[in-house]
Amino acid sequence: MSKVAVLGAGSWGTAFSMVLADGGNDVAIWARREEVAASINERRENSDYLPGLELPRSVSATHDPERALAGADVVVLAVPSQSLRTNLPMFLPYLEPDAVLVSLMKGIELGTLERMSEVIREVADVDPGRIAVVSGPNLAKEIARREPAASVVACEDESVATMLQKRCHSPAFRPYTSVDVLGCELGGAYKNVVALCVGMAVGLGFGDNTTASLITRGLAETARLAMRLGANPLTLMGLAGLGDLVATCSSPLSRNRTFGEKLGHGMTVEEVYASTRQVAEGAKSCSSIRALAEKAGIDAPIAEHVDEVVAGRMTTAEMMEAFISRDPKAEIE
Ligand SMILES: NC(=O)c1ccc[n+]([C@@H]2O[C@H](COP(=O)([O-])OP(=O)(O)OC[C@H]3O[C@@H](n4cnc5c(N)ncnc54)[C@H](O)[C@@H]3O)[C@@H](O)[C@H]2O)c1
Ligand SMILES: O=P(O)(O)OC[C@H](O)CO
Question: Binding of NADPH: at which residues (predicted)?
């Protein structure tokens, strides 16, 4: 069997390990906390992140980066986006030569405004043809329950995308290939911000017209930025764009939507952070995406207003009023 190292034992790192195991790979998960590695090895369960779901025998876990990476020709990164830069140097000495690095992360780095593949390229100093991204409508719990889903594997080198597609194609998981890494990453990061916004609307008590309006204008906003930066607009109409946007904005399983909903109910940002251990990437990426849009000179009202709410400078109700009272304009630019 071919070996894959999955660095990060949270919900998605663990669920994607199950996909890889079902696809015929031997999987070694690196867990930041030893007790999580022990739970996976001894009870065949990640009781912190995916309780009650049995992990295949070909999945093991370790707290030791060297053991996780030894012999792995594919290395999957699944830590929170804002921690990637500080985590990567711990893994680099143990990477096999020519290993392919795959990002599962959906965020934009604060400060540098870099996508995760850009952070990997910079810190690991590897060719973009060895960096790939997996992104799509893939809520971890549903994937771990083996409910059918599709996704996108993107890499500038199409042959690498095809190799990865084969490695993660399983009875319940259907990956499509793409060479549009930029479009997939922006789609994945932006939908988290839109899901925060939709959650806020739901928390305020608004219904389906409101959420559908926000989802649609969120897609317009995402496509505007992605196209300005050079993405293929059709990527945003695909699984890593519209697909993920719909799943995340519609599902009570989404941490980003839930985070927004709690704000809509009147909790403060600090209270919401204190209520969960899991990452809601949009709460940080709203600021970096807003800055990226400003730098690119495009209008991004959802990112801008969500950032204002998360920064505590605006209430969720004021955000909704601000959307409706914006200057009238044509729908299609
Ligand atoms: N959960 C999903 O459904 C899902 C699906 C697709 C993509 N993603 C993306 O995958 C990435 C990881 O998300 P997740 O759902 O696995 O998150 P999670 O919150 O479930 O788990 C994060 C993992 O990273 C570890 N961690 C936390 N802070 C860390 C740090 N500073 N350094 C190292 N490790 C740290 C945690 O211990 C945990 O193991 C995110 O970018 C997320 O957007 C998640
Ligand atoms: O739970 P969320 O909001 O991080 O979303 C999870 C996935 O990205 C959905 O595809």
Answer: 11-12, 32-33, 49, 106, 140, 255, 279, 281
